[in-house]
Amino acid sequence: MRTLVHFVLFFVISLSVGFGLSYWALEKGQLFGTLHIGPWIAWSDVGSPQPDPYTRAYISRNANLELSRTEGIKFVAKQDSDGRNILAECTYRIDGTTPETSLWTLMAVNAQGASLTLEGGPMTLRSDQINRADDGSFALRVGPSLSPSNWLETSANGQMILILTLYDSSVFSGLSSLSNSLPSIFVERC
What we know:
Blueprint: H1 2-28, E1 34-37, E2 40-43, H2 53-62, E3 72-77, E4 91-96, E5 101-109, E6 124-126, E7 138-143, E8 150-153, E9 161-169, E10 184-189
Parallel strand pairs: 7-8
Antiparallel strand pairs: 1-2, 3-9, 4-7, 4-10, 5-6, 5-9
C-alpha cells in the first residue's frame, strides 16, 4: 500500500511540474526558445524549419500566422523597461533604435490581439513614416494623450501589449549584441 501511495504521489508531482513548467514557458515566454532584448520578447524559433517543442506549442496555442525567419521577427512587450505592466490609459515614450531592418511596425493590442488604436486613425506606426534624430534614433509616443510628432493614439483601458515587427531584419545575422538593441519603453503620464 505504501508503494502505491508513493507511486501516485510521484506521478502527481511529475505531472504538476511538467505541466507547470510548460505553462510558465508558454505564458511568460521566459524559459525556452525566447529572445529577450530589454522589455521585448520574441520566440526566436518561430518560422524556422525545425522549431523546438515549446515554440511549436506556442504557435499551436496562439494559432497566429507567423513570419518565417527570413521575412522578419515579432517582438512583444507586456511590461515597460521598469518592469510594470503596460496600460492602455497611460502614455508611453518609446526611445531608441532598432537593428538594421528594411521596415518595422509598432502596434498596440489587448490580450486578445484586438487593436487598441482609435477607430479611423492609424493602426500602426511604421518606420518609413516617423521623424528621426540625426543619429537615426527616434522617440515615439503611444497612448490616449495628444503628443507631438510620432504618436499612436489608443482609446481603451486595461492591459496593453506592444508588438514591434521587424521585417527583413539583421537580428539573426550573427552581428554583435550592440546591433540588436531595441527601444526602451517608459511611462510618461498615467
